[in-house]
Write a structure and sequence with these properties.
The complex is a heterodimer of chains A (113) and B (113). Chain A has no helices and eleven strands. Chain A starts with a strand and ends with a strand. Chain B is 0% helix and 50% strand. Chain B has no helices and twelve strands. In chain B, strands 2, 5, 6, 10, 11 and 12 form a six-stranded mixed beta sheet that branches. Chain B has a four-stranded antiparallel beta sheet with strand order 3-9-8-7, with no helix packed on it. In chain B, strands 1-4 form a two-stranded antiparallel ribbon. In chain B, a hairpin with a 2-residue loop joins strand 7 and strand 8. The radius of gyration of chain B is 13 Å and the shape is globular. Classes of the chains: A mainly beta (113), B mainly beta (113). At the A-B interface, strand 4, strand 5, strand 9 and strand 10 of A face strand 5, strand 6 and strand 11 of B.
């Protein structure tokens, strides 16, 4: 079974630009969550999607948004990038009915210059 | 709100030494508890879990016991190997909110031969 796939793995943007990251969950997993990982803040929950609906949301500004498609693939978008948005963005999928274990992708490393 | 506190790192051990990484949590009710491991350049992967009080999770020689009375989930291994060098994260989640996990800051373990 293929794991969680995130693209792109690395990207560099400049302040003010916007970025879209993609995540393909494990086949059959309908829940997709996004996390931001930085050295100073650790792992911070961004949002979770289930069956194309946002089910949970973390404490991030509205510049951070996401969506999920009917095939469970998810995208997250960050608009008007700031230097502080430089981070590793991790996507995780989860099987419905499980006890909450997350399956993570390798992440998309975003650098904002 | 919920929170997870891990012992501060980094931790450096010699091969075959005993490992303990402390984890305590603040939460209401009965969350599920997890340890995840992150190897360099990779996403997180589940190491072990426990879903109710007094449960012991174990995997690859690592163990952790869900202690409700002390709100703790300390990670232990009797004899570490160089290949165990990684960052370890303690996390909690509620089944009703399972896509949204709260993570500790992570503890970096380095094992020297």
């Amino acid at each position: 079974k293929a794991g969680v796939t995130q693209t792109p793995r690395y990207l560099i943007k400049t302040r003010g630009q916007q970025v879209t990251l993609s995540c393909s969950p494990i086949s059959g997993h309908r829940s997709v969550s996004w996390y931001q990982q930085t050295p100073g803040q650790g792992l911070q929950f961004l949002f979770e999607y289930f069956s194309e609906t946002q089910r949970n949301k973390g404490n991030f500004p509205g510049r951070f948004s996401g969506r999920q498609f009917s095939n469970s693939r998810s995208e997250m978008n960050v608009s008007t990038l700031e230097l502080g948005d430089s981070a590793l963005y991790l996507c995780a999928s989860m099987q419905q009915g499980s006890t909450g274990e997350l399956f993570f992708g390798e992440g998309s490393r975003l650098t904002v210059l | 709100g919920n929170s997870v506190t891990q012992m501060e790192g980094p931790v450096t051990l010699s091969e075959e030494a005993f490992l303990t990484i402390n984890c305590t949590y603040t939460a209401t009710g009965y969350p599920s508890l997890f340890w995840y491991v992150q190897y360099p350049g990779e996403g997180l992967q589940l190491l072990l879990k426990a879903t109710k009080a007094d449960d012991k999770g174990s995997n690859k020689g690592f163990e952790a016991t869900y202690r409700k009375e002390t709100t703790s989930f300390h990670l232990e291994k009797g004899s570490v190997q160089v290949s165990d060098s990684a960052v370890y994260f303690c996390a909690l989640t509620y089944n009703t909110n399972a896509g949204k996990s709260t993570f500790g800051d992570g503890t970096t373990l380095t094992v020297k031969p």
